Amino acid sequence: xxxxxxxxxxxGLGYVVGSIAEKKHYRSIISREAQLLHIPTVSVKNMxxxxxxxxxxxxIQGSAVISIDHFKRLLASLRNIFGGKVAAYESxxxxxxxxxxxxxxxxxxxxxxVLNTRIETSTIGRSANSRGGIGSIEAIAYGTAVSxxx
Length: 150
Hints:
Elements: H1 2-35, E1 54-67, H2 70-82, H3 87-106, E2 113-124, E3 136-148
Antiparallel strand pairs: 1-3, 2-3
């Protein structure tokens, strides 16, 4: 009985700590997105009209690795048994992608636009097909930062 209580306390502690960390990360993302809103990121190769004097154009990239906590892994395992949307992994992927884009933009804070933006994701630590599910997810965002004379 004592071991069951310890397991329940640890699961509860994992939920509380994981939720606090995720909410703190989302607040950071929202704040930084607001600061970098002036740099649009688009997936098209060229949105700049002819005759524009380009000052600088360079490739930039940002990456982020976000780990899943044990409580979310437990919830995802239960969801895999019954089927349906795995919200625990959706927030993980969302945070990783948004963080990667922010880190990319932070590499060129004076750019006017980031063209041809691409985002790629992959799992790290465990194979998605393994018994334990994923451990972490990596997102890489890259594009061409362009500055032009106005």
